[in-house]
Amino acid sequence: MEARENNMVTKLSLKANVTFEEAQTALEKAGWDTLDALEALERAKKEREEKAKEEKKRITHEERKRELMKFLNTVFDWIKRGINCLCRNELKISSKNGTSLDMNLMVPTLLLIFFFPLTVISAIIAFFCGVRFTLTGPDVSKVQEAMKTSPAAEEEKVNSGIQE
Predict the structure, then answer these.
(1) pTM, to two decimals
(2) Quick one: which of 144, 13, 36, 43 has its CA closest to 89?
């Protein structure tokens, strides 16, 4: 390589901020035209940056997709646990004359969701007519046990004079 060509390669590599070999290859492909070689190097640099940007977008999109799936799994697990809890427990409706109706808690829940005003009005009328509503089941028992052993419940028993 001549000193003149070596000087051109050095200047181009400094100006385009590329390695000596990349500048030499670009100049050889451009027929030792500095302007064409500089344009080719800038085009190649821009293409590399765009590819890197697209790759980053793709990775970011996949991360968002994973986060969304994780969130949806959490929500559906919560819904599944809620439905299981409603299915394990029951609502017992009993009247003064001794008749009673036991139903899965899913039924009143669905009634509240789809027929809220009618359900609330019916419950209020039932309370005034002396109907008794009782929750039963394993989850309700846990809550009742926790309330029996809570300090507030003990204090209430002492204040009201209830003895065990």
Answers:
(1) 0.49
(2) 144
